[in-house]
Amino acid sequence: MCSCIQHIAGAAPRAVGPDRRSTVELALPRRVSSRSYDDGVTATPERESPPAIGRWRGTFYVSAVGVRTLVAMAVVAALGTPIAVALADGDRAAAGGRGTGGVGVLVVAGLALLGAGLPLVAGALATADWHGSAALLNRPMPGVPVVRFTEPRTLIRPMAYATVMLTLGGAAAVPGFLVVVGSAVTVAGPVLVANGDQIVIGPFTIDTLPESLLAALIGLALLTTVVLASPSIARWHASLVAQALTRPEQRLQLDLAMTARSRTRLVRAFDVERRRIERDLHDGVQPQLMSVSMTLGLALADMPAGAPGREDVVRAQDQTRRTLEAMRRFVRNIHPQVLVDHGLGAAVGELADTLTLPIAVEDRLPHRLPADVETSLYFCAAELLTNVVKHSGADHAEVRLDAMPDGSVRVSVRDDGGGGAGSAHHDGGGLAGIADRIAAFDGTLVVDSPLGGPTTVTITLAISEEDPDE
Amino acid sequence: MSEAGPEALTVAIAEDNTLLRGGLQVLLERNGFVVVAAVGAPDDLVDAVHATAPDLVVTDVRMPPEFQSEGLTAAVRLREEDPTLPVVVLSQYVEQSYVAELLDSSGGAGIGYLLKDRVSDVKDFAATLRRVHAGGTAVDPAVINQLIARRRDPLERLTSREREVLAVMAEGHSNAAIARLLFVSEAAVVKHIGNIMMKLDLPPNDDQNRRVAAVLAYLRGQSA
C-alpha cells in the first residue's frame, strides 16, 4: 500500500496522466521558437522588433566602443612592451655580442604581464561593453560578466569576446579612427589652408583652397556615412555582446521565465474568454429564449382549454423550458455568476449542491481572492469534485478552503473512496489539466491517494497582486 | 381583456433586457396589474419606486453597470427603506447564496425569489405575485431543492412525499393550493406538514407565512 504522492511544482509542470498534455503546453514551443537569439538574447515576445537606435546615440555608442577597443589595444601593447624591448635588445645583443641574461628576464616579465593583464583587460572591456549595450538597448540584460581568477571558467566568455574585439574590432577601429580624424581635419581644411598651413594626409598634400574645399567635401561625406551607418554597427555590436557574453543557462532561465509568463497569460485569456461566452449567452440567447417562452405563455393564457392547437403550444412551451434549463446548466459550467458575485466558497458550495454525493464545504477564507485565482481554483475544485463523483466510489467528500499564514490559499478535496487517483490505473482523471492550470499560477498540486483510500488532493496557490505582463 | 379594476396592483419593473422588459410588461398588464414604471437599471428602479410608490416591485438580479447582482442590491435597499414593500426578484439562475441576502431583509415576508422561467406560466406567475403582495414568501422550488440537498442528513428522514410538500410549501402556497398541486386531500397536506415540522424539530405553526419563513431559516441552517 504505497502512498502515491505526486508533487507538481510550478516551474516544471508534469502531466500526471501518460499522454494528457494541455493546449497550454502545446502552445508554448511555437512561441519560444518564434524568436531567434540573433537579435539579442533579451528579446521577449512583446519586443520582437529591436528598439530603434537613433543616429546620434548610435554614433556615440560606436565611438565609445571604438575608443574602448583602441584603449584596450594600447594597454595590451603596453603589456607586451618588455617582450618588444627584449626582442630589440636581443637583436642588438646578437649584433654587439653581449650576454642575453637581461633579455631572458624581460621576456619572462613580459609574458607574466600579458598572462595576468590580458584577462583583466578582457574583463574590463567585456564589462564596459556589456553595460554600454544594455544602456543602448534599454533592456535588462542577464548577468553582468564577472572575471574571477579563482574561477577560471568565468574567463572564457570575456576572453573570447576580447579576442574578437582586439582582432576584428581592432581591425575596424583603427582605420575607422583614422578616417574620422582625417575627415575632421579636412573639414577644417579650408580655414587652415586660408591661414597658410598645409595638410598632409598620407600621400596627399593639400595646400590650395580648391583642393581643401574638395577634401572638406569628401571628409564631410565620410563623416556623414559614419553617422548614418552607426545605428547598424551599434546593433550588430550589441548582438555580438549578447551572444558572446550571455551564458547558455541565463538564456534558458530567461526563456523559462518568459514561457511561464506567457502560460499564465494564456490561462487568464481562457478564463476571460469563458466569461465573455457566458455573458454573450446570458445577454443574447437566454433572453431570446425567455421571450419565446413568455409569448407562448401569453398565448396559452388566452387559449381556452381544449382549443385547437393548445396541445402543441403546451408542448412548445415545455420544450422551450427544457432548452432554457439545459442552457442554464451549460452556462454554469462555462462560468458561474455566483463566483463573480459571492466568491469561491459560495460557488463551490452551490456546485456541491448540484452533485449527487453529499459534499461538505468548509470555507475558511477571510476575504475574496483575486478574480483570476478564484476562477482557476473554482475550475480545479469542480474538476476534482467531478472526479470524486465519477471515479472514487466515495460516499462522502469534503472541500476545505483555507488561507495559509504565508498568504497562500489552500484548497483540499478529500473523499472516502477507493484511492489510487493519479496512479497508472487511472488516466489521471483531469489531474493533468488541473496541474497545468495550477502551474500557470506557480502553485502546487499534491495528490495523496493510497490504494484503498482515502484520497486527498491539495492545491496550494500563492496570491500575488502582481500582473504577469509586468 | 385586462382585469385592471379599482384594486389592480401597481407594479414597478426593472429588467435591463428590453425584449424581456417589454414582454414582462405586456404579461403583467394582461393579468390585471398596472405597470407604473418599467426601467432598465437599478438606480432608475429606486428612483421610480420613490416616485410612483408601487404596490409591488419586480426586478432582475443582474443589471448594469457591473452586471453582477445590482438588481438584488437595489431590492435589498428598497426593503431597508420600506420593510413592507413586496419585492419579487427574478433571476436567470437561482442560487441559494442570493436568497440569503434577500431573506435576511426583514424576515422574508413579502419576498419572492424566482427563476425567470416561471414567468412563462403566466397564471401561476400572476398568482405568485399576488401572494407575495399579500405578505407571502415565494422561493423557487429550484432553490428549495438546492437547500434540501445541502442539509441532507436530517432531511433524509423525510419521505419523498414530504419533501414534495416542503418544496411547494416554500413557494408560499396555502394548504388548499398544496393539496391541489400535489393531487392529495387537504387533510393529508396538514398531516404531511405536521410530520415535516416535527421531523425538523420546528414548532407547529398554522400561519402560512411564518411557517415558510421557519422552514427557510431551517434549511439555511439558522435554527439548527
SSE pattern of chain B: EHEHEHEHEHEHHHHHH
Q: How many strands appear in the DSSP assignment of chain B? A: 6
Task: Please list the strands of the largest sheet of chain A in the order they lie side by side.
Answer: 1-7-8-6-5-4
Beginning-to-end CA distance, first to last residue of chain A: 46 Å
The backbone outline of chain A, from C-alpha atoms, is elongated
The outline of chain B comes out as globular
Which CATH class of the largest domain in chain B? Alpha Beta
What proportion of the residues of chain B is helical, as a percent range? Answer: 40-55%
Largest interface, with Cβ-Cβ < 8 Å?
Answer: A-B, 38 and 34 residues
From the N-terminal CA to the C-terminal CA of chain B, the straight-line distance is 49 Å
The assembly state of the depicted protein chains is heterodimer
State the CATH topology of the largest domain in chain B.
Rossmann fold
Number of domains of chain A: 3
Protein name (chain A): histidine kinase
Catalytic activity (chain A): ATP + protein L-histidine = ADP + protein N-phospho-L-histidine
EC number (chain A): 2.7.13.3
Transmembrane segments (chain A): 65-88, 100-126, 160-193, 213-234
What are the main properties of this structure?
heterodimer; A: 470 residues; alpha+beta; Heat Shock Protein 90; 3 domains; 6-stranded mixed β-sheet; 11 helices; 8 strands; disordered N terminus; B: 224 residues; alpha/beta; Rossmann fold; Arc Repressor Mutant, subunit A; 2 domains; 6-stranded parallel β-sheet; 6 strands; 51% helix; CheY-like_superfamily (chain B)
